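Usage example:
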Amino acid sequence: MSIFKKRGNYHPLPETRFPEAVSIEYIKRILGRSSDFTVKSIYIGGKPQLQVSLCYIDGVVSSESVARDVLRPATQPERFADTDDLRSAAELIHHGGVFNFNVQLRRRTDDVVGDLLGGFCALVFDELGAALTFETRTGDKRSVEQPTMERSVKGARDAFNETYRVNTSLLRRKLRDPALRIEESSVGRRSQSRVGMVYVEGLTNPEFTAELRKRVEDMDIDAVLSTGNIEEYISDRRSIFPQTIMTERPDKFAMGIMEGRVGLLVDGLPMGFLMPANLPDFLRVPEDNSMHWLMASVLTLLRYGALLISVYLPAVYVAVTMYQPQMMPVKLLMSIIESRQTVPFSTAAEVLGMLVVFELLQEASLRLPQSVGNTVSIIGGLVVGQSAVEAKVISPVVVIIVALAGITGFTVPNQDMASALRLCRLAAALLALVSGLYGVLFGSVLLLWRLCSLECFGVAYMQPLAGEGGSRPWRALVKPPIKDTKERKPFLKPMDMRNQK
Amino acid sequence: MKRILLCALLCLVLGGCSGKGYEDMREIESFEIIRTLGVDYENGMYTVTAASGSESGGDVTVLTARSVTVARAMQKMQNYSTKKYIFFGHTANYLVGEAAAEHDLSACLEYVERGFDMRLDTNLFIVRGGTAEAAIAGASEKGEGVTEHLLALEKDVQILSENRIVDCGEAAEELAADGCTVITAVSLWENENVPVGENKKGVQVVGSAVIKDGRLAGYADVDTARGITLLTDRFVSDAAELPDGNGSYMAVELTDGRTEYSARFGDGGIEKILIRAKLRGSISEMESPVDIYDERVLTEVERVLAKRELERIVNVIELSRRLDADFLELERELEMKHPLRLPAALKSDALPLAEHEIEVAVEVEVKRSYELGISPAERRTRGERE
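Running the assembly step on the lines above writes:
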């Protein structure tokens, strides 16, 4: 049940926004007040009776491309020597009279406006009530760079960027499979963002593709400008745990597709989304496939251990020191007592305060420029931390506990999962304060219950550790040699189970 | 929404609403951690003495309280300081004074067994010829506290097989199962060889206390206590100084000792109980050179050692018979060996098990140790002779 009140299933903008016939006056009315909207009147083949309007949005299109590929051939008299009416001129242009590989005949104003905003220029034929649009997008885009969040040691070094077509080309270079399908649609009534659903025909379960197609179609929002817009719409339930695998690495995206997942690429977002997602996926990195299987398995187990330490260490410290001190080795206990003798705060206040300070430091260093961020980390972490310990405002044990919890949290490869764990860590510490280890246990049961009740595209979130039809749960913890992994994950229900001979 | 409300409600019930959680909560720096607890008995009142830990070399706090029960006396200690909470959860040693042990050791263990403040694995000691209060206070006067003495003693005693250290849980269990047990006996002593400024007083092992039917029945001396460790299969190592026949001494280090129990059955039940002890060791030091390649030398060493061990075992058996306490757990050991015949024989037997004839055999195997100071040629010659 949703905790947010729904306000009715409607959107202020109607499906067809511009119902009138295509005409330059109408388009001017729609876009005319913008300073970057440019309209030129031209004569096709230099003939005044063949007057049409060329319009485009400056900056979105390449003016050089417009002049070279549209304006110049359209005004050359010799091409249109035998053409006397606009209809035959339009047909000639549509069928190769102008050197442009992507020419569209548009009869709806919505389509023309969409194309103009998408980097096309348009020849508007008022008399015909139609327009020809030419793809003349500007080439200004960010080059393919190294991933910043998911750094690679032995893997590929390219990353998605904000340009949709670059992203699809990066994917195509990884997967030269003719069965790879990129189903494109437009999302966002005002942003008109291109969204591509990626899957491999004959491999990806059609239920996943149908479900994602439906969810994308159901997305009726103004603009897709952030990853959250997409994620919230395509996720099954509201949860702090990520239900889509977001990656900026094409190789990871391609691996997901080859496992039988369905992907989503969105214009303007330097990320790819993969569905369905399971908890163990968030603890794997593409480098695991580049390592010896034993090393990869050990590292995976280490990540699980780090996850538990990250969530439970502060909570267990609070619970044990405040409620169950007999559980602690006596020498450690005495050492902690000694270190806390002059600290003015209670253990819980100290731990919770330090957790909040840690979050603040992290937030501050993230939002600032990299060089300043590093300074903040050093000043905050080392100078202030050291001074606070020396001034006996906090005990060194708590600094160690919070720092350990934070560092182990960073070993979780997925940032969304790491953020979720940060919340869990705080909640566990609060429960420990209220009821000691009993509270921590209660919180763990709640957490497990929540994780086990989550589903993503009909696949249990805890697969293959738990869930109906799960098999080989050890595979979540151990990575077997690639030669022995001849089948894809069964819970993804791929159409083709075998991945090698 | 319902789920969230349910979770919130459960959280409140678990800790907040009842206030139970907050009541149990204590700040760790307010703890006075008690590491050694002593109990004495006099005129119907228990005196409980508690000594705190001093891991960082600080002063040891010693508290004493009196009441009719151990539990109440311990509760009284909480009133001594408004700032400190006396915490018994890490008590490592539990000393029972001789009078308290004679009166009723089981009563002293009752609190440890039933209460949740102390652990069952707290080491148990009997203070021979004195009170726990005097031992704790005496050994905690300066520097190292009584706890450090007892913890060091615990390790040494077990490594040298001088005694068996039992904890409160084991003692209570053995008393319930066999009606008797053996507990390490300690006493306060003054060591003159400590550096100036340090506490001369400490605790030392002075044999074992035999507890029967919950009360102190008698003591085994240090040598007999070693026999008990061998007979109860707790032997780890031992060292012996033996005359070599030339007026000098040699040291033998025993590194392995095992005891086997069996019974010989006749028509009327058990005929004889056989105890067979096996020890192994090696010569570790010689005051004057002895030809250890000579078999006769080694045989003589083995004979002397076997005699020594036999005497110890006989002393243990005699003590057991004298006190009528089966602290060797003879019945249990024999039942393991003869699971079917022993119960049947015990039914038909008129004599109690301990009254039967006991035959003891001790076998000691001593090996020569390596010599680095002889030439290869001599070593070869000796090897051939051997």
